[in-house]
Every structure is written in structure tokens, then in C-alpha cells.
Amino acid sequence: MTKNSAAGTDVAVRAGARTRLDRAPLFAWLQTIGIVILVAVILATPGFLAGPSILALLTTVSFIGCVAIGMTLITISGNIMSFALGATVGVTAMVFILATNRLGFGAGLLVGVIFGSLLTGLQGLLIGSVRANPIIISIAALALIYGVTQVFSEKGTIYADQGTVPALAKGKIAGVPIEFVVFLVSAVIAQFILSATRFGRNLFMVGSSFRAAEAVGVITWRTITGAYLWAGFFTSLAGIMLAIRYDSANMDYGVAYDYDAIAAVLVGGTAIGGGGGSALRTFAGAMVIAAVQVMLLLKGLRQEWQYLAAGLIVLAVIVLQTRGSGR
Amino acid sequence: MWRQLAGPHWRPFTVLAACILLLAALDAGQGAFLSAATAYSTLQIFATVSLVTLGLGLTMMIREFDLSVVGMYGMAGCIAVLTGTEHPWLGFFLALAIGLAAGIAQGFIIVRLNLSSVGVTLGGLLVFVGIAFVLTESRSLPYDNLAVALLLNERFGGIFSIRSVVALAFFASAAMIFAWTRLGRDIIAIGSDRRAAMTTGVKVDALIIGIFAFSGLCAALSGVLLSYSLASASPAGLADVIAPAAAGAILGGISLGGGTGRPLGIAAGALTLAVLRSGLNAVGAPPFVNDIAMGAVLLTVAVLDGPDLARRLIVVRRLARRSPTA
Hints:
- Chain A has 13 helices and 4 strands.
- By secondary structure, chain A is mainly alpha-helical.
- Chain A has a single domain, classed as Orthogonal Bundle (ABC transporter involved in vitamin B12 uptake, BtuC), CATH 1.10.3470.
- In chain A, a hairpin with a 2-residue loop joins strand 2 and strand 3.
- Chain A starts with a helix and ends in a 6-residue tail after the last helix.
- In chain B, strands 1-2 form a two-stranded antiparallel ribbon.
- Chain B is about 75% helix and about 0% strand.
- In chain B, helix 3 packs antiparallel against helix 13 and helix 4 packs parallel to helix 6.
- Chain B has one domain: ABC transporter involved in vitamin B12 uptake, BtuC (Orthogonal Bundle).
- Chains A and B meet through helix 1, helix 5, helix 6, helix 11 and helix 13 of A and helix 6, helix 12 and helix 14 of B.
């Protein structure tokens, strides 16, 4: 929460600052090795590599995955998480369907992406410029989005007109669902932004120490707003893909995506306190959670156990990962 | 006097009074708002979220944030409904004990491992939701002991029910403990400056664990009371509580930086939201008005509480002054 400054001193008092620097890479490596072993076990599960289950996995993981890529940027920027991304998925899907019905598919895509980016970017502007509490801003945005969409969509679900969405958009590229291709490309783009641009470098600086970043002349509000703009961009991709897949839009689409997304971010090893992390690791995190869930399903456990497994994984990762790295 | 009413200590009550006056004016003497029926439904809504607000508010007071209340709220209801058909008290106490234990566990992890409370309670939230799904097998469970449901909601004294009286009593005792014992001062001290509090001999770690335990207990209690009185529990349906709880705490004078607030203020904040919801309902406003109002309030408070607001305003003012000459 809002305790970066006070907690910093706490950590120094309690844990000793030395452990911070020394142990962080070690934990990252341990985690990577753990993930590799886990993937090996999962791949060895009978039936896992059979076509249907893996294709279903690749499609479902992509929706949450795109949100998780967006969430990664928010987490790295030091603003923990947003509770409004799930609602953004739903409302972007709606805007996309409405725009597609009026203006056609291409314009619909554009409108949807711009809408989602601006909606989230606006929250980033408030958070970045006056340093408003990110959790509260996102909860406020959540309530506002649900309230305003109720005004416009009394029937609940909006359907796309016949033939507006080209069949091509639901197809596969080289046997891989198009959703997964989008997810993979998103992860690569986000990783490029993070590690190869000045904005990305500033983002890590702002996330690890807001005051230090300000002192070296980073225009912090611009960086934070940028992080939220990109987060909105990747989130809107999830909304649009859901709308294309189901030929309709509903505010229920994004429910609980916030939690699934932050789970993927944390399992991927992005620090909850900000300042460290990567989009490709979030990609891996999302895949690991999804794979564990499919494995549980294949082993005959009921679907509910997936939720519990995801929760336990996240709790374990938070306890292990942030150990010694402070708050 | 005006300054005092708008000051942090009395502001929650001023806002509450303003809301009541506003709704009474909207009602314009039709008697739909200022009636015993509206008062009863206000208190019923108050009973549903106010205890979660109290728990969450106390964690915010010490500059932490207990996200897990949402999960505990749902899980406790499911546990109580599953175990309490024959013996309602058994389900009640079991759910409360689990809430307390889970709160202690989370507080312990936060203090001992020196972790962010948002992270730990996020993990807790996901685990609780998972447990609720596993216990209920993803279904909505009916609670067959209808006598209990009727008893909890039975109206007496014109506006009260057992459910709302329990919530009110909880608030009253919390307010008394807060005002008349060292505990209240210690909590404020932890929220204002944790290191200073530690230096002056406040048992910081124990208090943090205690507050998370209390928060878990509060969430469990509201969950049980709600599930019993609705005669059903579902793992997913109760999740929509974090926004009203956070809004209530903030309206109740909890600053986001910690170190301010008191239980009576939180009660006023939760009551304000309950009045708004039942009042808007009574005067015939569509349901989304409530969501929008709540979102707008949260947004406004978050921006006004932003530490850099003054700085930005200076820049804006300077630009405004410069622009006519340029």
C-alpha cells in the first residue's frame, strides 16, 4: 500500500539491507529451475499432450494472459495491482461489438483498443500525477465502470450482427489458436518495451524507488500514466478476443480476471513491491498456472480444486519470493 | 463550529447528515424515505457490509490492507451453511473460529516474514475462494434451517433485526474499547509512525497480528449472518463486497496514509452507504446510481488524499496565471 517510505526503514531495521541484493537473483534462479521441473512433470502427465486438452488450454490461458501482461506493467511501476482490469475486459468487449456493428470490423478493433487504453490510462494519470492510492482508484474505477455500463446495457448481453466478424479472426495460425498467437506477441512486445526502451528503464526506476527516480529527473507521472496506458492496451486485447470468440459481449466476461492475472504475474516472479519483473516471465507464470489446472483436471480432480491450487501456488510464491526482499 | 464539523473527527457524521437531508429533500414529503421501512432496510444493508468495513478499516488504520476479507466473507458463509443445518451455533462458531485462525495466520506471516500485507492477503483471498469452491463443489447451497433465517431477519422495535443489532453491538463495543483503553491510541500510533511506536514500547507485532485476526473474525461474522439470513451460500455470489467496504472505511474518516480514524467514524461511513442505497431505492432511483455514486466518492477522496495534489495544483495555478500574459 502507501507505505513505501516507512517500510523501507522498517526493512532495514528488521532484516538487514544486505540480503536484498544478494538473494534476489538466487531466488529468481530457484524459481526458474522450479518452473522447469514443474513443466517436465506436467508434460509427463498422460493425456496432457493430446490435442483437445492442449488446444483448450492455449485458448483459455490467452484471455487471462493478456490481462496479466498488462498487470505486469502496473506491478512493476510500484502500484501493486488494479482491480478494474476485469471490468475493463467486459466493457471493452461491449464497446468493440457496438463499434463493429456500426463501423465495421477494422474500425471496431481500433475503437476497442483506444477505448481500453484510455480508460486505464486515465486512472494512471490520476495515480501518477497526484500519487493517489492505486488500489482505491482501481476500486473506484471498478464501481464506476459497472455503474455506467448498467445504464447502457439493460439486456446484459450485446450481440454482434451477422457476418460483421470475419471467420478468419476465429481461426488458427499453423494449428495454433489465434488468441494464443496474440498472447505470445503481446508478451514479446511488452518485454521489448520493458527492456529495450527508455520508458521501460524509467518504469523500473519509478517502481523500485519513486523518490530516487524523481531525483534523477524521470518525469514520474508520465511514466506511470504510460504503464497504465499499455496495461489498458493489453487488457483491451483480451476483451476484443473474447467478443470475437463468442460473437457477443457481456460484463461477466472479465469477472475475477484481476485475481487470475495477478496470480500469473506473481508466479512469474515479478516483485509485488514493484521495480522488478518481466513480461516473458508473466507469460511463463500464466502457462504454469493453466498447466497445473489442466493436470489436476486430467488426474480426475474436480474443477473446484483448480481454484484452490491457484490460490496455494500464489500464497507459496509470495511467501518464498518476497522473503528478504522487503515489502 | 463549521470548521469543526468539516474536520476529520466529525466529517463522517456531517456527510451522513447531509446524505439524509439530501434524500429527504429528494423524497419531497412523500414519506417513502423517512419511514420505518426504509430505516429497517438501511440497517439490514448496514448489517451486511459494516463489519467487513470495520475489519478492513482497522487494517487501513495501521497502513496495511486486508484483501482477504472478500474471500473470508464468502468462505465463512459456506462453512456455516454446510455445518450448521442441525445446530446453527456449531456452524456459527466453527466459521468464526476459522475466520479468527486465518486472520492470525496471515498476520503472523506478515509480521514474521516482513511481507507486504497486500501480497499475503491476496494469497489468502485466493486460497479462501478456492476452499469455498471445493467445499460447495461450485454450487449455491441452500440452508434448510429456515427458522434461523426468519429469526435473524425478524423485525422488532420497528426498525431492528437481530442481524443489525449484532452489527451495532459489535461497533459499540469496538468504539468503547477504542476510546477508553490504550489499544486505540496504540493502533493510531502504529499507523502514524511504526518505528516511533515501536520505540515507545507499543507491542507492534502483536497488535498487527491482533488486527488481522479481528478483521478475519469480522468478515467471517458478516458472512455467516448474511448466509444464514438469506438461507443460502454460494462460493462466488458474495464477492461484491470490497468496493463498499473500502468506500465505507474511507467515508468513515480513515485516511489512506494510515493513522487516523475511529470505529464510530467507520460506522458512520458504512451507514452513509447504507442510507444512500436504501434511500435511492426508496425514492425510485435506478440501481446503477448507487454504483456510480460510490465510485465517484471513492475517486474524489483518493484524489484529494493524494500526497502530490498540492504540488500539482501549484503548477496548474502558475500556468493559469502565466497564460493571459503569454
